Amino acid sequence: MTMAYQQKLAEKLTILNDRGVGVLLRMNYIKKTCSDSKLRPQFLMEKTMEASVKYINKKFPNIDFRGNSQQHLTSIQRQKSEVMMAMASYYDSFLDVMEFRDHVYELLNTIDACQCFFNIAVNFDFTKNYLELIVTYTSVIIMLSRIDDKKVLVGMYNCAHEMSNGSSDPAYPRLAQMLMEYEQPMKKLTEEFGPHTKAVTEALLSLQMLYPRRNLPAEQWRSAQLLSLLSAPAAMLDPTPCDTTACEYLSVEVMERWILFGFLLCHSSLNSNQSSQELWKMALRSGLYLTVVRDETINIHKVTEDYFDSLKGYSKRVADIKECREHAIANCGVMHRERRSFLRHALKELVKILEDEPGLLGPKALFVFMALSFSRDEVLWLVRHSENIPKTKTPEDYVDSQMAELLFYMERLRTLMTKYDRVVQRYHILYLAKFDTLLLNDTIQNMYVCPEEESILMTSFVSTLSELTVNQVKNGEEFDLRAIRLDWLRLQAYTSVSKAPLMLKDYPDLAKIMNMTQFHTKMVDNIQEMLHETSDLSILCFYPRVFEKMFSLSSEEVSMQRYLMSFPLACSRFSQCAHPLCPEEKRCLRLCVTFLEEIARQTSSIILDICAEQSNLNDQLLPKHCGQTISAARNKKQKKQTPKKEVQKAKPGTESQRKDRAIVTKSVSFHPCVLTQTVISLLSIHLCILIIYPTYLNLSTYHLDSGKNKVIVKMVHYNQTTQEISRPSDLLAGVRAYTASLHTLSRYLSLDVTRLVKNVLLQQTQPLDSYGGQTITTLYTNWYLESLLRQASSALIIHCPTMHCFVNQTSENEQSFKAEEYSDIVEMQALAELIGPYGLKFLSENLMWHITSQVGELKKLVIENMDVLVQMRANFDKPEAMVNLQKRLPAGDNVLKRMTIIGVILSFRAMAQDTLEDHCPYLMGPIESLRDLVSPDTDIKVTLSVFELASAAGLKCDIDPALVAAIANMRTDNTSIEEEYKLTCLLLVYIAVSLPMLALDPSSCYSREYGGHSNNIHCLATAVNQLSAAMFTVQNKNIEQHLKEFLLVASSTLLQLGQNVENRVDSKNRDSIYLLLHMIVEASPFLSQDMLESCFPYVLLRNAYREVYKALYSS
C-alpha cells in the first residue's frame, strides 16, 4: 500500500497521457511535412545531398565517418552547422518518442507489479487513463513507423553532430536501435505487451457489459425511446437515474480503439478467453478503419490479419477476421445510416423541448452529453469511411446529404448548454450540497475499513462539497473543483492495487456515488470541457475534401439549406485541436470562409427569388396589361365575338387560388412567410454567429449587393442587337417591388434594407458598379444615344414640344419602339429617379461629347468657306451681292443638318433636366432667387457657378454651364480667342444665310399638332440660342449684340426668299420657315419681339401662321 502512495500512479497516468498526445501530434506533423514537397526539409531535396541521403539510408545505423565513406558525406561536411540546425527539431522529436516509451514501460511495469484492478464501471478514470495510455503509445509507434525519412533525419543530424563535436550524440545509439526495432511495429509491440496481457485483458473485459449496450442498432434505440424526454412525462423533472454516469457518454469510437488495439497487442487472450473473442469480434464488425491521429487511419482488419497470419495457431482468428470484415462491408453502412437518421429526430425533439423549457437542462444534462457523444461518433465514423469507401453494392450508405441537420442540432445543444450554464450550475450545486454530500457521508460512515490516507481524501470531499451554495452562483463566483476530481483519481489508484487495505471493488456503492459526484462537479465548473469531450469535431479540419462534400450535398437539398450554418460553426472550433507540443501544425481554416461565402450566396439568392416573384406579381398589375381585359369587356358589352386565336390571359390573383392544399403553387412556395423560414435559419441561428464571424453579414450583404446589381441590370432587358430595352417606368416599378419585398423580409430578418438599396442604386448611377459591371446608367445612356436620338437626327423620330416628348414619324417601315413611350414626362421622371443626378450628369457628358463633335465639323465647314462668309457678313443687306455669294457657298444643308442634330440633343437634355425640379423641393426657392439675381454685369465666373447650381437643380438658365465647359475644352493651343470668335460669328452667318434652303425640303412644314416641324428643324431655335450663348461666353463677348446681328442676316435672307416670285418652289414651305425665325426669338433670353419686328415685319409672321393653319385644315 505504501508503494501505491509513493508511485503516484494517478499523476503519472495523467501527465503521460497528455505528453503522449503531444508526441503523437509531433510524429504526425513530421510525417506530413516529409511527404509534402512544399514543406519537406530543404536538405532532403537538394541534389548535392542525394549521395549523402542514399548512403545514410543504406548504412543506417552504422554510418562510417572515416575512410572511403567520407566522400559520400562531403556535402554534409560543408554545411554541418546548417544541417544540424535544420535537423535539430526532428531529432529532438524522436528523442521525445524514446523518452515517452521509457516512461510508459516504467509505468506499465509498476502497474503490473502493483497488480492493479481495472473495471470501467468502478474505477472509471483509472481504467480509462490506463487504456488511453496504451492506445496513445501504440499510435505513436505506428506513426513513427510511417515516417519514411526517419533514418535520414536522425542520421544526418548525428553526422553533422560528429563532424562539429568530434563525437556522436550520446542518445544516438539507443535512438537508432529503437528506429530499427520498430521497422515492423506490431511484432515489437506485441512482444512488449506480452507481460501486460493479464492487466490489459481485465481492463478490456470490463467493457463487455458497456460496449454491447452502447453498440446497438437504431431499431433497438428507437424501441427503447433512447434520449426521449417524452417517453416518461411524469419523470421529466427527475434526475437521470444511472449507476455508470461517466460510461454513458463515453465515446464508442474510443472503446473500439481500446478493444481492437488492446487485443491486437495482447492477442493470446483471444485463444484462451471466449468473452475476449466475442468482444473483439463485435468491435471488428462495427467498422473497417480506426483513427490513429488526425486524418491518419488504420485498416484494422488488414493489419490484424497480416500479423495473425505470421503466427502459429491463429488460423481460426484469421477466419474470424475475414468473416467480420465481410459482415462490416455488408451491414455497417446501413446500420450507421439508420443511426444518423434516428439521432437527427431524437436531437430535434430534445432541442425543441429544452428550448421551450431550459430548466430541464439541470436534471437532464446527462441526456445532452449522451446525445452529443452518440452524434459525434456517427459523424466521425462517416468521415473516416468516406475517405476509404469499401467495394460494396450500396456506396450511397457512405454519403449523407442530411448531415447539416445533425450538425445543426449538435450546435443547438452546445449553444443551449452554454447559454443556460447558470441554470445547470444552480441545479447541480444544490444536488451536490443536498444529496451527493449526504449520501457520500452515509456511505463513508458505513465502511468498516477506512485507512488514514483514504479517510483524509473522502473527508475533504464531503467538506468541500458541503460548502457549496447557490449564492455563489448569484454572486458570479468562479468555481474550480478540479482538486476533487484529481483526488478521486488518486483514491481510485490507491484502492485498486493488490492487497490495499481498502479495495474499491469491495465498495461498489462508493464508486457509483463518486463517479456520479464527479459528473456533477463538472456541471458546476467544467461544462465547456465536457462539451469539448463529447462533441469535439475539430478533426474535420483535417478532412477538408470530405467536409466540403458534405456541405455541397447538404446545400443541394432544399430542406437542408436552413441548417447550413452548422458547417462554419463547426469550423469555429478548429482552433481547439491545437496542442502546445505542436503549435506549428497546419489546420485547414479556409473552409470557414468557403462555407460562409456559399451560405451568403444562397441566402441572397433566396431573398432575390422572393423579390423576383413579388416583382412579377406586381408587374401583372401595371396598366399596360389591362388592354386585353378592357377589350374583352368592351366586346362583351357590344356582343362582339372574341377571336378564337386569342388566348385569354390569367388575371392577377389567380396564382393564389387552390382547390387542394397539397398543391403547392409557385406563388405559395415563394411566399415570404415560407421562404423566410429558410432565410431566418441561415441568417439568425444565434447571436454567437455574429461574434464568431463578424464578416458573415458583410459577406451576405456583398452577395445581396452584387445580386441586386445584376438583377436590376437584367430587368432592363437590354438587347444590343435589336436595341430593345425596358421602359424606365417599368424598371422603376420593378425596383420598387423589389424594395417593398426586402422591407417585408426585414420584419423577420436583421437586414438593413435602406442601406442596401441606397448602396445598390447609388452604384447604378455610375458608369460601372463596384464589381466592374455595366449599370442602368450606361445602358440607358447608350440606348438613348444610339436608338432614340440617332433616329431623331434622321427625322424618323420627331421632337414634339406640345407633348414634351419625342414621337415616331409616320412611315412605311414600322419602328421597333414607340418614342413617346420612352421620352414622355413620366418616363423621363422615372429615368431621373433611377439614375439620379450622377447618372444624368453622365448622360449629359455623353450628349455634350456628341455636340462638340458636331461643332468641330461645323468649324471645319466655316474655315473652308471663310472668304465667302466674310463677304456675306459685310453685304447681307445687298440682295444682288447676296445672290451671287450664295451661289458660291456650298454645304448649307450640311450646316443646317448638324445644327439640327445639336438642337435635338439639347432638346432631349432639357427634357431630362426638367425632371430634376422635384429632386430637392426645399432648396428650389433659394436656388431660383440666386439665379434671378444674376445680371449681365455679374462676373462671368460667378454667373457660371450659379447657373451650374441651378442647372443641377433642374432650372433653366440663360447660359448652359455644361455646354460652356464642353466648348471651352475644345479649344487647343494652336487657336487664339480672336480666331475662335471670328469662327463663331461666321458660323452664325453661315446658319442665317442657309435658312432659306429649308424651304426646299418638303418635310419642313410646320405641324400644329406637334408644335414643330416634321424634320425637327424647330430644334434649330434651341441650338442657335444655346450654342451661340456658350461660345460667346467662352470668348467673353456680348451675346445679345451678336444674336441681333444673326437676326438681321436671317431676316434679310428670308425676306429675299419672299421676293422670289419667279420660282414658286422656293416658297412652298416659306411660311413654316418664317415661323422658325419666330421660334428662335421666342426661345432666346437675349432677343425680343421688338428686335424681331424692327427687321422682320410682324404681318409676315401673322400671315405665315394663318397660311400654315389653313394648309393643315385643308389637308
UniProtKB/TrEMBL annotation:
GO cellular component assignments: SCAR complex
Where is the region Disordered? 633-659
Could you tell me which Pfam families the record lists for this protein?
Nckap1
What InterPro entries does its record include? Nck-associated_protein-1 (IPR019137)
A GO BP term here is:
cortical actin cytoskeleton organization
Recorded protein name is NCK associated protein 1 like
Q: What gene is behind this protein?
A: NCKAP1L
